[in-house]
Amino acid sequence: MTTATVDLRHYGHDDLPEIRQTLLDVHADAYADDMTEFDERFPWFVDHWGSHPGFACVIGYEGEEPVGFAYGAPATPGREWWREHLQDAPADDSTFSFSELMVRHAWRKTGTADRLHTALLANRPEALAVLLVDPDHPKVQALYEQWGYQKVGNRQPFPDSPNFAVMLRPVNPAASHQNGDTA
Q1: SS3 of 17, please?
Q2: Which secondary structure element, helix H or strand E, spans residue 121, and what is its range?
Q3: In whole angstroms, how far apart are CA 102 and each of 27, 68, 69, 98, 129?
Q4: Which of 19, 28, 67, 138 is found 20 to 30 A from 108 (Cα to Cα)?
Q5: Domain 3-179 -> CATH class
Q6: Of 26, 20, 4, which is closest to residue 106 (Cα–Cα)?
Q7: What letter would DSSP give residue 94?
Q8: pTM
Q9: Using an 8 Å Cβ cutoff, are 24 and 31 in contact?
């Protein structure tokens, strides 16, 4: 499989009824051998994020077969939970919460994750993107670091969740670097 054959399709809040089962199916396949109790709550997370009016999702397809997805939504202004990890917030603290990036096993290491990530953040009006990474997956954290994210702290959002690494980056790193801003 190659990324050249993966078609990226964009969806929003109103599309959730149409794409919900696709997201659940890709998740079930991606975690088939490694499902934890926390992962079993994924349908709740899909509904939670999808209920946000600013919900944005990109699904990659090879033909009509879904191979992966990325989704998130804008953070509520003034309630950006990453703030507790920085001494001084950037002047423009508008934030896109990058909630999920998932690629089915057969399409991993093909560049599909990078394409989904890039497509989801393309043309976002927010200045920053934030995400959580399970520290038990250092290769995933290293991948996000390659994409410009910096670990700013740790957060355990639920009692049964991992103590995630909080990672933050400018949505458009080139523009932020040119302006002298840092996250």
Answers
A1: helix
A2: helix 112-121
A3: 7, 5, 5, 12, 17
A4: 19
A5: alpha beta
A6: 26
A7: -
A8: 0.85
A9: no
